[in-house]
Amino acid sequence: MLIGIDVGGTYTDGVLFKQGAIVATVKKPTDDMNLKNTLLEVLDELLPSAGEQKIERIVFSTTLVTNLLATGRGERTALIMLPGHGLPHDAYDICPDIFFARGTVDFRGNVIEKLDQKEIDDILARIAAAGIKRVAVAAKFANRNDIMEREIQSKLAADYPDISVSISSEISNKLNFPRRAATTYFTAMTVKEWMRFAAEINQAITERGLDSEVHILKADGGTFSLDTSSRRPCETVFSGPAASTMGGLALSQPNLNSVVLDIGGTTSDIALIIGGEPLYASKGARLGKHYTHINAFAVNSVALGGDSCLDYDGGIKVQNFRRGAAACFGGDYPTVMDAFNCKMALGIGNAGQSAEKLQQLAAKAGMESSELCRQVVNIVIERLISSIEAMFREWENEPAYKVWEVVNRRKFKLDQIIGIGAAATAIVPQVAARMEVDSFLHDYSPVANALGAAVVRPTLAVELHVDTPNNFFSVGPGGIRGSLNDRGGMQLGEAKNMARQYLLDMCREQGMESYASESSFYMEEQFNIISGWSRSGKIFDVGIQIAPGFISEYKGVSS
Amino acid sequence: MKPTGILFFPAFDWAISPTHPEREERLLYTRDQIFEEGIMDLPQIKEYHPRLAEIRDVARLHFCIPTVEAQIIEAHLVSAGSALVMADAFMQGEVKNAFAIIRPPGHHAMTVSHGNRGFCNINNEAIMIEYLRQKYGIKRVAIVDTDVHHGDGTQEIYWHDPDVLFISFHQDGRTLYPGSGFMEELGGPLAHGTTINLPLAPKTTDAGILYAIDELILPMLEDFKPDIVINSAGQDNHYSDPLANMAFSARGYAELNSRLAPDIAVLEGGYSVETALPYVNMGLIMAMAGIDYSNLREPDYNPSRFKESPRNMEYIKKMVAQQWTAYKNREETIADNRKKSGNFVNYNKSIFYDTEYIYEDQINHLRICQNCGGFRMIESRAHQRTGEHFHVFCISIPANACQQCQEEGRAAYQDMIKKRPFDLLYLQDRVKDDLRIYKVHKDIETVL
Asked: Among A29, A255, A368, A439, which residue's CB has the most CB atoms within a 10 Å radius?
């Protein structure tokens, strides 16, 4: 048996899933101040339905990190940046306790300017004097040479053993220094609280006598184990939309181009699935005003949902807030849901209430009730479609760096719209009809998020950079560095083998080796390096991943 | 404030040959640098996706012999198309200025193209300018070519166009390819003084070039009042460039760009792929986006290493004064030329294509018009790289041509169809945007 729990901003959904069917569902309001309690309440309500059967796996998404970042309740953390020469320092407005130090490495990993020991000593002394117990360090091009980050790390360990440190080269091997610095900082400032939370969850699971695997959902639509999560807690942000998207994918046909439209109370989340694969945000998850190296789905949120209330002020307005439930569910004001209910004669809830409240607003606007519904339905459909199409354009207009990519210019051809959330049944078929594609709705659509959490598999992406003339390679995440055995004639195939081997090692270490055989390469680049007029070697960049997908036990839902 | 548009197209799958300076690796470290800096994430920058230019966009400017398709591959269309994307973004008000960091380059490509010269097949900036004129009705254009090599292709294309001010500073042609761009090259009889060349001595530094910008180029732009300013942003004046001998720095380039404030910049040459390009491109992006670049420098930069010599400064000052006079007197000179010339001015020209070892012979005929810059006819012959020989006749009616030049140009085309002494006839009527090729032996006319 599998349990999936999606902790959302308003509600927490949980499902108990067995052999293609949902055995039990639970929905509870989320208590932001005590996520652990909410989680455990949902878990405890699901457990009796399992009876004596073993729970193999529990996966949950959580808003813990999102809340920590939004409220600034993370641990006070100093960020030491080595930005070298380039943008002015005020471009790196990441946190209050920020320190800039000298020390420069270039894109080939050559040291241009060494660390200034005295300057670093001064900075560390100031950090210690301020009572700060956690430090993040980020150097430009540390992904190509981490020597300066390591030096600062060693210095801290020797001089200030009570201060913990995170270095950017261990967080990510990707280019983009500001994103790497922000990701390292956010990791450092949330890790303490996260570990406390993880320990509590572990304890609670043990107390209940369960020996299930416990996984956390990540922004990239995959999971990692509770143990692994404490290395990179930031990856748990935005796991709610990831749960919905993966849930939509789990319920529908794979290999299609789909829009997943998750219609909530006052917001709708739009995600794209291209040939069965969810689309990622090209610049990584955005936390506050900072882009990061956290892999996250591209999700477009529209301030519009089933409970969005309707008003008249010279024209019909669909507001971006709610004044309570829809009239058909006992609310006092007409909502988007009520308008669809009447227009399409859906008979949801108390349809008479929908009609009555809409009639009151129509009278105020001096129009027929049917005209009011027509206008509201139009506004909603048009707003959703324009947001969906904006996402298509954005995807089509991603920068391209090869002739091949421009000549074979991509165009998004939509096959279906997958509806998720309680209000989806009313709205999604209308949007799909207007776009002349199929709509896909499933009985499990309202709990697709929790289902998604229950059945997704772990993910892992490994990036390898090799510079043969410099006899150097680096692997991320984890900040592995080394020199090559045979630098002379290395070819792309060998670099790919090397990347695959590191992926395999990491899979073993994280207890996910059963998925290693499903890895695929998502980046293969090689460049000849010319010195003078002859070739001196090659640079390779290889990326290999276990992409988002489903655990082998999951064979679809019985309809 | 509107953002700066950037189109970064490194063509990671295109090279002239594996070890050629124009190889896949050329913008690799530039990519590393600008990605690592994260500058593309800033709200001051908007990044764009390339597109393919259309065959017509190329044929509006060039006579590609025998056809556009025969002279180029897709990489060229992407590079030229990228410049057009930037032109659209600028003209439609999406960005305050735009920088196309693209390859293959273009500024050595001339009106007639039999092959590749100076790493260039088609002229990206000029294709963009004719597109701007056609689509947006732009009339007056200024091009400032800051590549270390003389922009001889762009100069030839606009030699007779009084509405295009072409200014090129470069390392003296006696010491560097393509061996042209001397002070006396001031434009054709009806466009005299709108081509301005500043041949600089090897080792000229930031100070020397910035003096020319402040004292000559900026006043000229102020006076000429172009509708748009284009920068052919070559980066090989840099002190580390392996193909040239100048002493310009990344910060100097940023400063130059900031003072020049071009509407659209287009990358040209620059072959110090590791020690200059990453920093010069950063500097240019920062300058265009109005980001403080005082913290930018190359790893080995030492400001005291390059001091302008008083002697060279004197030379530059003299040159600036002389070119200013030539520019100021241009209207008188042109009026004088109109009086003393007949109906047509005819001249011969030999063009060498260094990349492909092609020798082209041209006879040019310019109509001396009382109202406009005149239309031009070019008779061209060459053995192309394939061994094939072409003898062609091309008629180009410029975008700002008067009624009479349009009529006479079109009549000349019809006349040539009757006379038939060539393999191919070309009509390029940029006013009507009517582009035709006539295959004489087969009697087939293709309207593009």
From this structure: A439
